[in-house]
Design brief:
The structure is a single chain. By secondary structure, the chain is of the alpha/beta class. The chain is 11% helix and 23% strand. It has an eleven-stranded mixed β-sheet with strand order 1-2-3-4-5-6-7-8-9-11-10. The longest helix has 13 residues. The protein is elongated and about 60 Å long.
Length: 227
């Protein structure tokens, strides 16, 4: 186990230290102390590391992550795990707006609440939120899964493509082209796996599924005058 003190080293030195580690390194487990709400901590990692950040972080923590498992032992600012490709980013507290934005893969777990635009333009990432999400979450979501164990804010799934949204609580104000859909056996199976990975004990049967009505992004010649 290796420890890095952000207060003593600075954000650039810590990120360079982690980024330059070879993928076959034996030094897998790293602890970052005194994050002090700094931005862009542990961004662009490209090795199977285990990084524990002991405290609150600012914007874009874990952005562009590949392979690494990053745990934030506190709250996180805007854009947590933005453009994530693979691996795991785990937030023990709450996360601000645009968590998991444009994520292509991997798993983002937020044990608390997520603010507005959670999963905006997601492209394959799986996001599990233990609490609620704010307005415009999953806006233009293309692929992947967003699991909300609490309530969903206004305009959930606005302009959604083919991402799957699962909400356990209220979702009373859906966005454009987002509708409630049938929860079939394959969806219950997929949701059960996601909840297990995120260590959430809710029953899949207590969730409802939402997705695209496929009317917004498919051209219909009979409605040409409306375009």
């Amino acid at each position: 186990m290796n420890e890095l003190d952000l207060k003593a080293m600075g954000i650039t030195a810590i990120n360079q230290k982690l980024y330059k580690l070879p993928k076959d390194t034996n030094e897998r487990h790293w602890i970052i102390r005194n994050p002090m709400g700094q931005h862009s901590i542990a961004c662009g990692l490209d090795a199977p590391l285990h990084v524990d950040i002991q405290g609150h972080v600012g914007f874009y923590c874990g952005g562009m992550n590949q392979h690494a498992e990053i745990t934030i032992h506190g709250h996180a600012g805007v854009g947590t795990a933005e453009n994530m490709m693979s691996g795991v980013v785990w937030v023990k507290g709450n996360s601000s707006e645009s968590a998991g934005a444009t994520g292509n893969g991997g798993l983002l777990v937020i044990e608390g609440d997520a603010s507005s635009r959670c999963g905006i333009s997601m492209k394959g990432i799986d996001i599990v939120v233990g609490g609620s999400v704010g307005h415009m979450s999953a806006f233009m979501a293309q692929r992947g899964n967003l699991v909300v164990c609490g309530d969903a804010g206004e305009a959930l799934g606005d302009s959604i493509y083919e991402a799957r949204l699962y909400v356990r609580g209220k979702a009373d104000n859906l966005g454009s082209d987002c509708i409630e859909k049938e929860m079939r056996a394959e969806h219950l199976e997929d949701l059960a796996k996601l909840l297990e990975r995120a260590k959430m004990k809710h029953k899949p049967e207590s969730f409802r599924r939402y997705g695209s009505a496929r009317k917004l992004y498919n051209f219909n010649v009979d409605h040409a005058d409306a375009y």
